[in-house]
């Protein structure tokens, strides 16, 4: 799984400079209590990405709502 993540990173790394979310393999491993990043699965990464996207959508929705007049 990690080799696939690395390969995709190399293919898309130029786009990461304009992304609104960033997901770190090290952070995911730490949050899940893994002693090594090699234990992180592709599914673990996908779930974290979905969580980050959900947070971003909520934050943007709140910002839009705050900008609307009462």
Structural class: mainly alpha
Low-confidence parts: none
- Biggest sheet features: none
Q: Compute the separation of the termini in Å.
A: 49 Å
Helix share bin: 55-70%
Number of domains: 1
Strand content: under 5%
Secondary-structure element pattern, one letter each: HHH
Number of helices: 3
Mean pLDDT value: 89
Tally of DSSP β-strands: 0
Whole-angstrom Rg: 15 Å
Gross morphology is: elongated
Protein name: Os01g0102600 protein
InterPro entries: P-loop_NTPase
Organism: Oryza sativa subsp. japonica (Rice)
State the main characteristics.
70 residues; 3 helices; 63% helix
Mind explaining what this structure looks like?
The chain has one domain. It has 70 residues and is mainly alpha-helical. The protein has three helices and no strands. The chain is elongated and about 50 Å long. The chain is 63% helix and 0% strand. It comes from Oryza sativa subsp. japonica. This is Os01g0102600 protein.
Question: What is shown here, in short?
Answer:
This is Os01g0102600 protein. This protein has helices spanning 2-12, 25-31, 42-67. By secondary structure, it is mostly helical.
Protein topology:
Elements lengths: L1 H11 L12 H7 L10 H26 L3
């Amino acid at each position: 799984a990690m080799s696939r993540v690395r390969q995709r990173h190399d293919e898309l790394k130029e786009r990461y400079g304009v992304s609104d979310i960033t997901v770190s393999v090290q952070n995911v491993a730490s949050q899940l209590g893994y002693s090594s990043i090699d234990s992180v699965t592709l599914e673990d990464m996908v779930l974290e990405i979905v969580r980050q996207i959900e947070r971003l959508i909520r934050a943007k929705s709140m910002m839009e709502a705050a900008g609307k007049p009462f």
